[in-house]
Write a structure and sequence with these properties.
By secondary structure, the chain is α+β, with helices and mostly antiparallel strands. About 55% of the residues lie in helices and about 20% in strands. The longest helix is centred in the last third of the chain and has 24 residues. The chain is flat, with a radius of gyration of 16 Å. It starts with a helix and ends with a helix.
Amino acid sequence: MTKSWTWTIANVTKKYVTEDQYTPKKIIYRGDKTIVLWEDGTRTMVKCTKDDTFCEDHGFAMALAKKIFGSRGAYMDYVEKASYQKDEKFVKKDSA
């Protein structure tokens, strides 16, 4: 699974990544929000849900995921598909 995930991200990065696209210039933690200003001049903001506890590293990780995938929904779709593929492969290995 790791190999195919790395391959997919490698294809994305070869096609779309500029040198500074995923380099943070400044990370701001304000209340339950994480705001990342990127070297390419863009910014990404994420916020905890009311049921979550704020965590700086999770805030940055979600901001990076949002930057890469475009939205939390697109990120979650990718994770769900990857999880499904992982389970499917696991079942096939056990049944063989």
